[in-house]
Amino acid sequence: MWFWNAEKEASDAQSSLKSPPDDVEEAAEVLNRALKGDINDKGTKDAIASHQTSQSTKSMRDLANIRAKSIKLSEFPKEMSCLTAMDELLECMSMGGQIRNYYRYGDFTMCDKQTKKLDFCIRNKGKPNEVKEENVQRYYKDRLIEKLKRGSSEDVWESRK
């Protein structure tokens, strides 16, 4: 019977799998042996490579964050158009904007980023020019820092260089 053999092979394969180490020291020992090349287990090497990639991605984000914080406020725009902010919000809320977001990310959006921008613009309109310009520059700088903290696919390519 062919199905009996398949079940037997599956149970043999499952019993031959090694259980993960229970002790932290034992896990560290396995990691050190794998790094030295004493272990030729593909799964262990893949886990190490994944860990190293995630560490380099974190360091890339840290570097990007440091760069963003080092940018002077004077390098950001001083003006913000509330009409443009309203257009961005309406475009996001439109059927086309929702379909685009669903296609790209697999979910509809509540347009939080655009809503916050319009809200900021309206609240900032009545302030004196010097304060208004500084607030707008700080707003754009904060958005850049948030974007860099989230990371992007560019982080992967930077780490592969």
From TrEMBL:
It comes from the Eukaryota. InterPro entries: Pants/Emi1-like (IPR021475). Transmembrane segments: none annotated. Pfam families: PANTS-like (PF11326). Residues 1-26, 41-61 are annotated as: Disordered. Residues 1-11 have a biased composition (Basic and acidic residues). This is DEBR0S2_07338g1_1. It comes from Dekkera bruxellensis. The lineage of its organism: Eukaryota, Fungi, Dikarya, Ascomycota, Saccharomycotina.
